Amino acid sequence: MDAKWQKRAGYLKKGENWLIPGFCCLILFLAAGLAWDYYYDLNDDVLIRDILSGVYTGEPEALTAQLLWPLGALLAGLYRLLPGQPVFGAFLWLCQAGSVFLILRRSLLWLEACAGCPSCPVWKKLLMCFLETLIAAVCLLYHLVFVQYTVTAGLLAAAAVFYFLTVPRNLTVPRNLAVPRNLAVPGKEESAVSFWLRCLPAALLFWLAFCLRSEMGLLLLPLAGVAGIWKWSGCRPVFTKKNMAAFAGLFGWIAAGLLICLGADRLACSDPAWREFERLFDARTEVYDFSGADLRSWEDNRAFYEELGLSREQCELLSNYNYGADDAIGASVMEQVAAYGRKTQGAFAHSPSEGLWLYVQRLRNNRAIVPDDQLPWLLPEAGPVALLLSAAAGEWARWLRRGKGGVGQTGTSDAAAGRREGSSGRRTGILWKLLLLGAVRSGLWMYLILRERVPERISHPLYFCELILLGWLLLDTMACGPWAGTGKPRAVPPAGSGRFPAVLPAAAALFCLAVGICFLPGQAERTQAEFFRRQQVNAVNLAALSYYEDHGGLLYLADVMSTVDFSEKLFSEKSAPGNYDLLGGWLCKSPHSEKKLAAFGYESMGQAVSEGKKIRLVGEPETDWSWLTGLLAGQGKSAVLTPEDEIAAEGRSLYVWRLERE
User: Which residues form the signal peptide (predicted)?
Assistant: First the structure.
């Protein structure tokens, strides 16, 4: 019996670096799922799901205008194999859970490799994973419950960066050291190809993030470059042929992978109709996401719109996002509006001085400038920076004390011994690494601020990747040895290290615990409030979907602004094609939209609005439809909009209107 228990204990010991992170992830995601429920964050995510699953056009489509084709083709293929299953929702959930799990596991392996103690006590590993999970819950709880594909791409990219940081560039490691095989190869210096292969999981994660949201991958690419410079600098001597081949070559084939993914997407989108739609899509993005609302105002730009040939009613379609109702507003018109916006408003929303002031206010956590949802990120970033600066100051103090000491029994000064231990490198290493990270993150934030494009789904992944970099640097500093920064194990702790290295882990643990106690209840309250709000808002959406299904012979076209708050549960799935669409939005006038309308006998949405007898218009009670009758009057047609029905649930309602033509 004792032998069996010892054997089982041995298996558990070998697998604890899998079991402990898995247990912490299970607790985090199980608690989130039981306390609330998983939702798509935005209606954009729901529309992507509908395209991939075939709900939108009747068959799964690989082109989504958001995901790159390689990933879209994979997910659409899975929908064909598993019809009616929540493939996209499960994919996003697995990506988020996998990213958190990977970060927890790699942090344990990195600590073992740096400290040279693979037999680290289980309670220390549990404590470390618990604290990391606590910080993840503080920063990500809202996004783990309300899942957004852009945020998921950011988590994947951050996990890729952390994986890369925890893959050491192995120098010659003594064979007699107990080293985790997946983090070090004892006996010889590895080749560049071997290093590339061990970094392959990180590259695959980054390619996946790029395919999921290419803009997020590009935004976080400079931070990945910071990680590369940090790692390269830890390999001494730095500029050897093998090191240059390893790191420069790794960056080269990661970039090549990104270009291959992008090239495959461009090839898949080579159809002229899709290219025409992409022109409209890109111009629409510039008009709605990077230009002020006054650009779409008739009163402020009447001369321009009259010269463009648009009426007041057509301009109103640009303002209320229902431009699909008029076939005259196509790629050419939208491109001219975007060009006019660049001419009158400039490429940036703020001047450099204004942007710098706004950036400083964010760093100061000015509550009049920084939204409340940014606070859980600012303090967790400030804490590691303060601890790292304290570590650097402690190294300076110890170095100065050694410099004042005499020659030891071996005839060697303590200062020289300190230099051999690498303390001088750690002193300066922490400072220049923080300065490099600060410079790069400042450039990224200035770009976002100047473009006035800082929504949560962009800012929070950026914060998270910064936090991952700081967390690794802190972890590496806590496990510092003569080879700190490379992941190369040490046989014995550095001599004369004093009490400071023991204080740093304790201070970091107390800081993580304090952040969790202070901010986790607030994040839970925020998530709870949003969950109840979505239940109320989505009740009328579910009622509307049921209503559409009961009236399958009609096509329902919804006002865009009446539906922006709608979302659906992550693991719910629809299988039948829907007899409804939006009057605008980012998929409007795409080949997919035309394919959907063709199933109801219309060549375009403009034709459906002006001629369709089996269409109904849907919007909130206060929706202004005056533009519609004015638009038809401009086409020489007379019509009256008559309320036909009301869809009500949880105190909210949508009206169904019938267009009666005279």
Answer: none
Residue spans of the domains in the chain: they are 2-265+359-529, 291-345, 533-661
**Dihedral angle over CA of 233, 237, 241, 242, nearest 10:** -70
**Rounded to an integer, what distance in angstroms lies between the CA atom of residue 225 and that of residue 250?**
11
In this prediction, residue 173 carries a pLDDT of 47
Token couple for 361: 């206010």
> At 240, which amino acid appears?
T
Angstrom CA distances, 114 to 106, 108, 190, 236, 649, stand at: 12, 10, 18, 16, 58
Q: How many residues in total does the chain contain?
A: 662
Range from 359-373, 493-507, 567-581, 594-608 carrying the lowest mean pLDDT: 493-507
Q: What are phi and psi of 655, to 5 degrees?
A: -100, 145
Predicted TM-score (pTM) of this structure: 0.90
Can you tell me the distance from the alpha carbon of 280 to that of 283, in angstroms, rounded to the nearest whole number?
5
pLDDT tens digits for range 322-347: 999 999 999 999 999 999 998 888 87
d(CA 204, CA 226): 19
Whole-angstrom distance, CA of residue 454 vs CA of residue 458: 6
What is the residue-wise DSSP string for 434-451?
Answer: HHHHHHHHHHHHHHHHHT
Phi, psi for 557 (deg, rounded to 5): -115, 120
* Cα within 13 Å of Cα(121), Cβ side: 3
